[in-house]
Amino acid sequence: MAEKLRLVDLVHARLDRFLDDRQAHLDSVADELGVFVDAGRELLAGGKRFRALFAYWGWQAVAGASKPDDLLATLDEHPDIDAIIDVAAAVEIFQGAALVHDDIMDNSDTRRGKPAAHRRFESMHREREWAGSASVYGMSGALLLGDLLLGWSDELLDDGLAQLGDRRAARAARDEFRTMRTEVMLGQYLDIYEEVAWREADEREQLPRAHRVVTYKSAKYSIEAPLALGALMAGGTEEQVSALRAFGLPLGVAFQLRDDLLGVFGDPEVTGKPAGDDLREGKRTVIIALARAGLPVGPRALIDELLGDPDLTPHQVATLQATIRDSGAVETVESIIARSVAEAVAALEDAPISRAATRELIGLADTVTRRQS
């Protein structure tokens, strides 16, 4: 636990230093550009650092595997620790970029209980009574913030990988990051595509298509890719990296399915987003596919009629929630989550990785799938 807390503190401190450096650059161009660092700092201050933790423990799983008595390299003693902290922080910045763009696409008002980036820029426009459309300015400013964060994540990644003595490991990690970045973008597109084109798919295809979104929009980049990134930085063998992928992908699916349940039933005071936010956004998630498959024609038509209406009333949200519960979809999703976690944990049995890292990863599996926000 102490190692985990210290890692989170180190990643946070690295992000602060990085943003301080970028603040100096932006200030040298124009005073008005400070808003990008302010918005980025506020966004990156939140979150649970799950991706950073998985990158670190992927690294430790390999770096600690050859130690006598399975002793881990601590945060103080390993020559590559600064490199892994930089890369873990880069993954967090990448996540920030994805959240900014995701909130624009979903037309979300809030993120972690605060205004989403595009709403922040929009409010700035309104408060100062600038010319033109506040909404257009808000989206444009947030798009640029997301792009800037995306570029910055690449810069910090390069800073970290440049510190590795093993250049082959650095190249392999760089390739993993590139793949992760591409697949997230593809998953994001599939997500918005399913919201509008779902009627074109055969009913039997609704669930596999929803699962495809889960895999590429979230599961791979939330857990599998950070694990592989850390393992590759440590020079992991094909067997070691494959074992971590076999753990990370099913756990990533369980992680996103928990997120989907929270998007429909989560407490706004805990999640920082309005109740039923995914219902207003029209997310064609696994839980929606399962609910539709388990309902007769009438209730299924009700879901299709109301899902995606941004002006859903609290009563309509409650009606949709009750309809989904009645379908049995919640129990089915909980069952899938449990099976996915069991599959993930089983993949670590006899894996050629650090035993201490294995214990930490099993603990993280429980944390990320039982969370309330």
From TrEMBL:
Per its UniProt record, what Pfam families does this chain match? polyprenyl_synt
Q: Does the keyword Cell inner membrane apply?
A: no
Task: Spell out the PROSITE patterns in the cross-references.
Answer: POLYPRENYL_SYNTHASE_1 (PS00723), POLYPRENYL_SYNTHASE_2 (PS00444)
| InterPro entries attached to this UniProt entry | Isoprenoid_synthase_dom_sf (IPR008949), Polyprenyl_synt (IPR000092), Polyprenyl_synt_CS (IPR033749)
Keywords, alphabetical: Magnesium, Metal-binding, Transferase
Q: Which domain of life is it from?
A: Bacteria
A GO BP entry is: isoprenoid biosynthetic process
Q: Which family does it belong to?
A: Belongs to the FPP/GGPP synthase family.
Q: What is this protein called?
A: Geranylgeranyl diphosphate synthase type I
Q: Which organism is it from?
A: Microcella alkaliphila
